[in-house]
Design a protein that fits this description.
Layout (H helix, E strand, L loop, with lengths): L3 H22 L3 H11 L1 E5 L3 E6 L2 E7 L4 E7 L2 E10 L6 E2 L6 E2 L6 H7 L4 E4 L2 E5 L2 H8 L2 H4 L3 E4 L6 E6 L7
Antiparallel strand pairs: 1-2, 2-3, 3-4, 4-5, 6-7, 8-9, 9-11, 10-11
Helix pairs in contact: 1-2
Length: 172
Amino acid sequence: MKTQADIAPFAALLEQQQREAFTRDYPGAYLEERRDSACTVKVSMGKKFARVDIGNSGKYMVDLETGDIYGIKAYGVVHRGHRYGTLETIGEWDWSGYVAQRKQAASSLYDELKGAGIPLDNHESDLYFLDTPESRAILARFPEKASIAKPFVCMNDRKDWIDVFWDAVKTR
């Protein structure tokens, strides 16, 4: 059975992200005064669910047995079709909007290189990409891949390329 102490980290994260979004979306002294009343999170414990309110409105309900987080149909009425993870997965969600959104998974080295238009190639479990300042900057954001990267000169075009082990090939 979940307690108010178990729900407190969720409430704190929810309030923090709501305040950041409010400040970003509604700049100015007039609205700044109203941020506290609009973004304050209150948790009310029930027998089966905890009600999580933002400002004066109901927003989420937490199943005290499982820790599942749900949206609401009406105040105090859980909407089981709108599930937003659990108390253990609150970090995987963005709570700043009208409804929670699952955060995008971190992009891969391949996705970043492809998105930047860097020429790519592969052979079995190796990913090859053209060695440019831009591709090196992208590679630097992936230290686990940068540590195993090997530069080489391509026999076909005589250009400098980089070779890294590509674990994404397993899922193709």
